[in-house]
Amino acid sequence: MLKPAAILFSLAFTSCLPAFQSVSGSAEWISRENTVHAAGWGASSLNEFQSALLLRARANATRGPLTISAAGQAYGTLYGYPAHKVHVDEAWASIELAGRGSILGGIQRYPHQYSYYWNPTFPLTPKTDLARPDYLAAGIPMLVVSAKAGPLTPRFIAAWDSGESSYGVQLDAYTRGVESYLNGFYSAEGARSAGAGARAGLAGWTLQAEGSLVSTPESLALPSCESAAGTGCVRSPGPREVAWRSSLGINRTVLRKGLLAAEVFHNGAGMSASEFEAFQRLAASGLLNEVPQDLTLGALRRNFSFIAYQHTHSRRLKWGLRNVTCWDDASGYLQPGFTWVHGDHLEFGAELLINYSRGGSEFGLLPARTSLSVRLRYYL
Amino acid sequence: MHNGPLSLILAALLARLPAAAAAPGDLPPAQEILRAAEEALFPASTVMRIVLTDHRPRTKPRGFRIEVKAARNLGGLLSFLSPPTEIGKKYLFKDRSVWISIPGLPNSIRVSSKEAFMDSTFANNDLMDTGYSDDYDVALEGAALREGRPVYILSCTAKTPQVAYQRIRMSIDRETSIPTEFEFFTRSGLLLKTCRFSERKMLAGRLRAARIEMKDASAPEMFSTIDIEQMTAVALAPNVFSTENSRK
Fold it and tell me: What is the pTM of this model?
């Protein structure tokens, strides 16, 4: 039976709905028992109805020195766009040999290194939507071969993304509490990158720094609109050959119950003010038939910051606040939210996105000024 | 010598006093006592199943069942077995940092080990750091009686400011080397927490404390307990305590 507080909350929530430009909700049923877990998920939005079903499974088996793991995740849209389509998000298998090495192959997402939101050094990682930090883009076919040599873990990586193949090597190290890595990547289409990063704890702080030099022959991939006389288009900026991308971050426990985290990110391949203006004119002119995949909201300009605080009020209630800002045009958004755990199975959460950006700015491109998302999860 | 009421009173008082400290030559070195206590608490490398329960006034106690893999000088890995909302989460402890892996997140979050574990009175490193002799300089304060049993009293001072507690006073049972009580202090001597060890059981081949109760001195009505359901001495490979393994 619903308690009075829950009824009051529901009434308050319903009465506030018209104030939001976007409201979405989701309900998930998740089982993570033992070696196999499955999740069912349904979601709908009041503004744009969509529904989908997500299934995820994982299994492990150990035979002597071998550990074999497999995982898969697929979702099918039942209503909305694209309708009735099944998409395989992850499907991989790995073999591990007694801690000495592993081979992992299949459709997967390569994990971020240290930064919470940005990944400045691994070009193969599927792009995340910075306007929705919990969103994870789909996996891509990838093969990762790793070996273990004391504190060092060298890896070879091969990936295929939309028909483009990329190859890379990475050396991970862990010594005296300091994690670090070096990596280098090469794509058959001519992109190159070399990166490094480190993370360590110091006097109660966790510090991280990452950076990479990225060289791409068509870094902006914007079409020219020279031929569009009279449309007011500005010539698209030329390709940028080499760019520096970096991320610095810190986090600290506050009063034993809270976690404060902050990051700054520099995208050397990002657009200057005039380039961004030109891009918006192109988009508005209709001549930009397809936005290049490299252009992800939250990484179009050059300088960003992220700050977040999460507080564990009690075993049942956590609340938090995060802010993402583009320092090139002072655009950004606030996201307060909370999670409430009821009993051993039920988790309820809500997040509000308050966009304070003006039009014509990075985050001014977000579709809504304010949006509310609500989720209900039942763990089997 | 005069016999009389004063002598009787003095004799009664002397009988109530704790056993006097033995001469320095009769007591083992402090480091030896501490190492024996560490061995009595947990094996050097172990897999345990524990239940962590938080007790608060006017609230139903809520427990977590957790599998703990711990190896001295290597680290600790906690995996949640229940409740269903927590299954899949893992905490890796190494070098005074904690990596938290949550299903669905692409990477591990690294935080300080001083943070409270799951809003209990235990800190992260209370659960995962099974050794003290590397982090503390230890001195023997003396001997005493606690609940009728003779104990050693050790005074431990942190070697670096990075550990969670700057001073610990330990009471160690003289016969079994099982700890009976730890008191945790700040550098200035303020009592932070008290930890009591009780309910002795045969675990991993010897008698050990199967219940650990931690109380916060600033909120004595709230306390957390760890009940050890199972304990096995198992050789654990170093790669068990890696961020890669914790994400699986």
Answer: 0.79
